[in-house]
């Protein structure tokens, strides 16, 4: 057999082996792509339970579809999840001479009858209309170990669900910050202005409260039954 024929046979064998190897790989890759495409088509995109939407530079909207409510709040507030709702931290301008240490708002949802905590001194009582519903309100203030506390609370009963709104402010003593002379009076005046402004924003937030329909879950009558 001539050498040219032998080399031709060797080249032919190499080509056949290459086709088998790489052709099979391409087929496998195509199958993989198809399978991945099939898998991705079955992925269910979940609906977000909590949504924070910036309405404007001053106002944002918080909506919790699982707990079934939405509220508008100042965009400057920092929202964070709590066990039964949402908690907002209100920033305090460090450039101002004041002793306000804490400004916080909490909105919680309970499956129970609304009841304010037992307190000895109530500063004020009242009601406020929220849509077609009426919320009860109490406010209280006291001083403990050199700290001044102010709270305003609203309770709103809707069927078996209770919605509780709470505004909390805590101010330290002027002595704890080493203030003297005119700075003491300035801090006291600023404290009142800072707390009053945050309290007013809290009241407007409560008035914006809306009960929404939950987007979570499926109608049981439409869920396929496994056989």
Looking at this protein, list some descriptive labels.
227 residues; alpha+beta; Protein Transport Mog1p, Chain A; 2 domains; seven-stranded antiparallel beta sheet; four-stranded antiparallel beta sheet; 2 helices; extended
How would you portray this structure in words?
Strand 2 (59-64) and strand 3 form a beta hairpin. The chain is extended. The chain is of the alpha+beta class and 227 residues long. The strands form 2 sheets. Strands 4-5-6-10-9-8-7 form a 7-stranded antiparallel beta sheet, with helices on one face. A 4-stranded antiparallel beta sheet has the order 1-2-3-11. It folds into 2 domains: 1-43; 50-211, Protein Transport Mog1p, Chain A (3-Layer(aba) Sandwich), CATH 3.40.1000.10. The chain contains 2 helices and 11 strands. The protein has helices spanning 3-41, 182-207, and strands at 50-54, 59-64, 69-74, 78-81, 85-89, 100-110, 124-130, 133-144, 147-158, 161-171, 210-211. The longest helix has 39 residues, at 3-41.
Q: Classify the helix fraction into a percent range.
A: 25-40%
- Architecture per CATH nomenclature, i.e. the level-2 architecture of the largest domain: 3-Layer(aba) Sandwich
CATH C-level category of the largest domain: Alpha Beta
Number of helices: 2
Tally of separate domains: 2
How many angstroms separate the termini? Answer: 70 Å
Classification by helices and strands? alpha+beta
**Spatial arrangement of strands, main beta sheet:** 4-5-6-10-9-8-7
Average pLDDT figure: 82
CATH fold-level topology of the largest domain:
Protein Transport Mog1p, Chain A
Number of distinct beta strands: 11
How would a textbook summarize the main sheet?
7 strands, antiparallel
CA gyration radius, whole angstroms: 32 Å
């Amino acid at each position: 057999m001539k050498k040219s024929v032998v080399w031709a046979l060797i080249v032919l064998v190499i080509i056949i082996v290459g086709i088998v190897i790489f052709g099979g790989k391409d087929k496998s890759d195509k199958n993989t792509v198809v399978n991945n495409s099939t898998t991705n088509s079955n992925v269910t995109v979940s609906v977000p339970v909590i949504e924070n939407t910036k309405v404007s530079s001053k106002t944002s909207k918080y909506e919790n579809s699982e707990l079934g409510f939405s509220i508008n709040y100042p965009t400057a507030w920092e929202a964070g999840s709590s066990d039964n709702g949402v908690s907002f931290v209100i920033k305090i301008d460090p450039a101002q001479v004041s002793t306000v240490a804490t400004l916080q708002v909490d909105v919680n949802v309970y499956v129970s009858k609304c009841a304010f905590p037992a307190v000895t001194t109530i500063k004020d009582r009242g009601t406020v209309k929220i849509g077609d519903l009426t919320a009860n309100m109490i406010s209280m203030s006291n001083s403990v170990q050199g700290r001044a506390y102010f709270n305003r609370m609203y309770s709103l009963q809707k069927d078996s669900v209770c919605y509780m709104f709470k505004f909390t402010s805590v101010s330290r003593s002027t002595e704890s910050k080493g203030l003297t002379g005119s700075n003491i009076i300035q801090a006291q005046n600023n404290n009142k202005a800072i707390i009053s402004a945050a309290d007013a924003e809290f009241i407007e937030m409560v008035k914006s409260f809306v009960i929404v329909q939950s987007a979570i879950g499926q109608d049981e009558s439409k869920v396929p039954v496994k056989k």
